[in-house]
């Protein structure tokens, strides 16, 4: 489409659409590859968070176009550029005022895990400090939490799968991972959950949200929230059974 035709198309679209629909049609929606939240399997995107957002967009009358990027890039685009939407994001205190928010999509509480048979007693951050290394996915909420907690033996990996591999390969003694995402991540790398042990240390509750660029209107965010609430009421149990059972 030439620049002139595109400009004419956007002008006519602006005349035809209601103001809020025009604003929502401009949004660029991003997510990252994280089992079971969102991933691409045999060329087809799927996942519990992905399906929830697709259904939410359809409820709003939008065409569900969602681009996969790295977690770090998604956060950067939504924070520093206008008209972006990125999911699934933990609403931590340091992120709270950098975005506008809708959610939660689902709960993914963060626990510390070790290999079965590892005798280490892990009940506190002080116990973590004594370990040879604690694995986290780089830039995600558990990285921020443990860094802010003063932990000095953090080892960062670029994906959830590589974080788990660092534990399996004994490059670290424990990892911080979400309860909802760990089983799918283990399956992804061919690991049986029976080989892992959840320690008593829950770092924090972790509801996952949709993050919007700060320029997105409150009205638009509220419409997304209302649509998401309706979708969850109708489809949430089915999606839980599909992806988390």
Features of the shown structure:
245 residues, D-Maltodextrin-Binding Protein, domain 2, 2 domains, 5-stranded mixed beta sheet, 9 helices, 40% helix
Explain what the structure shows.
With 245 residues, the protein is an alpha/beta fold. Helix content is 40%, strand content 25%. It is built from nine helices and twelve strands. It has helices at residues 3-16, 19-25, 48-59, 71-80, 125-129, 141-148, 160-168, 182-188, 218-243; strands at 28-31, 39-41, 44-46, 66-68, 84-90, 100-107, 110-115, 134-137, 154-157, 174-178, 196-204, 207-212. The chain is globular and about 65 Å long. The N and C termini lie far apart (45 Å). Residues 1-23 form the signal peptide. InterPro entries: Solute-binding_3/MltF_N (IPR001638).
